[in-house]
Amino acid sequence: MTTTTAVPTTARQPRTLLAARILAGAVGVVQLAGALFFLVLAREEAVWIGPLVDVPVIALTLTTIVLKIAFALAPRVSPARRTTVGLVTVALGVVLTLIKVPVYDEPEGAVFLVVDAVILVLLLVARRAR
Predict the structure, then answer these.
(1) What is the pTM of this model?
(2) How confident is the model at residue 30 (pLDDT cuts 50, 70, 90)?
(3) Domain residues of the chain, as ranges?
(4) What is the Cα–Cα distance from 20 to 23, expressed in whole angstroms?
(5) Distance between CA atoms of residues 45 and 39, nearest Å
């Protein structure tokens, strides 16, 4: 008598989801380096408004960075759940950028808006491909 063992199949992720993961991971690592630089190494170079503004912005920044890296690297997450996490991450990134550009006078934040838009398009295409 022969027995066979069923191997669970993992849901295959679309290439657009993989591209979104790579881009989000790269941006997350760059943002983490920037946050660590200004929070630890060059505090005197950073723009500080006051604790009532800075603390929530820093918390949102670090949350967004952690979500981007988790979206990119978390193992064994279904494509549907990963897409949802990616969409939440993009939404938080857009909100964060829209706060930081005028409050902290960071026009370079427009680059992050463009990157978030590209990630959003990739996620929407991946979601449609399923």
Answers:
(1) 0.84
(2) very high
(3) 15-129
(4) 5
(5) 10
